[in-house]
CP-type G domain-containing protein (Saliterribacillus persicus), 366 residues
Amino acid sequence: MDELVCEGCGVQLQTEDKKAAGYTPASALEQEHVICQRCFRLKHYNEVQDVDYDDDDYLRMIQQIRNTNSLVIKIVDIFDFDGSFISSLHRLVGNNPILLIGNKVDLLPKSTNKNKVINWIKKSASDYGLKVQDVFLVSAEAGVGFEEVEKTIEAMRDNRDVYVVGCTNVGKSTFINRLIDRTSGVKDAITTSYFPGTTLGFIQIPLDESNFLYDTPGVVNRSQIVHYMSEKDLKYITPKKEIKPRVYQLNAKQTLFMGGLARFDYEKGEKQSFVCYFSNQLMIHRTKLEQADEFYKKHNGSLLQPPDEKTIELLPELVKQTMKLPNRKTDIVFAGLGWITVPQGGITVSFYIPRGVHISIRDALI
């Protein structure tokens, strides 16, 4: 049993404690491919069982990489860069070289300048103190951008192991599944789902006779809004198709609600257009600023959907920030949801986001 691990999530298998990580019925050990009960229910019923790991446990697992001589592949979500970035990564992986992969590029509007996105990711990583060898844009779901990534990985690993790291829900296991499928034809080798934290241990995949590719546990970042969402609402806010920009002409003293999850108030400025980049399924509602508080109290969870009842229980209160935007085209980024592009700066706005979830201002990406 010491050597037997789940092929889905990498956790050590055991047959004694049904509530602990790695449980599988003894009869399942006779099968050729063995997965734990948690992965079985995740794969077949899309249900997730809680396990007794905390956030620091995942970081301690990742820290083992610093004692290796390997290539590190860091996956980030283009739509939640700050929320999906491991700020302590340079300390966790030591001096090992890092390739940075921006996932979900297929969801950006076709008009997006990809070189501009790459330069933005490089600068953002540098601002976090992370030195990277190169940046690539891919879609793990659609298989976009993998030919160049494969060639670079093979050239850079130089007969070393490869560790794939990332925060929860960035598409890390989907990325590895795509690599495995392209090289060996094996589909869905690693358990994936909408839910964060589905990989519980290092999963070892042979690269050659002496080296391996490792899928690592997703690092939990509590600034990710996904940790406060129900299964149903995750599907509303997680883009699955190319984002369609939605344009709203606003006068000062008007408000936009992104469901009941975030709010944008145009406090002061001339009438202008605001371009919203959110999941196509996330409803956006416009109202007058003077009516916004009452509108939210009356319609949160109904007309303002999501959240559903379960998310309302989990979601921290919305907190307000007010600022005057710089006098240039900028994005207001609601971490894990999307962003609003402000074509003309020099205006005063307020925005509301659940307490603890990150919000940022950047030069316009599109």
Confidence is low (pLDDT under 50) at residues 191-200. The first helix runs from residue 37 to 45. Residues 236-363 form one domain. The radius of gyration is 22 Å.
